[in-house]
């Protein structure tokens, strides 16, 4: 007998398809299906009005952890009351700020990414599991000795200054201490 290559390929392909149809892999699908699960019980739903939001800067200070009177949080350096840079604070560059930082706001920690991706008047920023108000950081920029973190509308959320090495200290716009370290 003389088979052509095309004929041999057709016979091989037919045998392969036929063998695939006779497999027992799908035989379990023909069996009876289990009974559907019962719906989980649920309670009654009620509607209540939420209290009105607090005006910016009027948060109840008793809701935030504080250090005992007369002590300073050792993680956050104090800033001059007029908001100017502390003595000896170095000038900043975008390159010195770019990266991922561990942020601490009133004793709560999270991470903030500060890539050098242009965004608005500065650079994009990304908070990760951060408490208010820095959970709303969308951008950042440097000017002289100051690092400023901004919200989505370009409003200032925090101002920080280098306190040496890989650390920044400052305050949020509502007066909470904030520090960034890496």
From TrEMBL:
| Domain of life of the source | Bacteria
A GO molecular function assigned to this protein is: endopeptidase inhibitor activity
Grouped into one coarse class, the protein's main location is: membrane
* Record-annotated Alkaline proteinase inhibitor/ Outer membrane lipoprotein Omp19 domain positions: 92-182
Protein location:
Cell outer membrane
| Region ranges (Disordered) | 26-91
Which of UniProt's keywords are assigned here?
Answer: Cell outer membrane, Lipoprotein, Membrane, Palmitate, Signal
Recorded protein name is: Protease inhibitor Inh
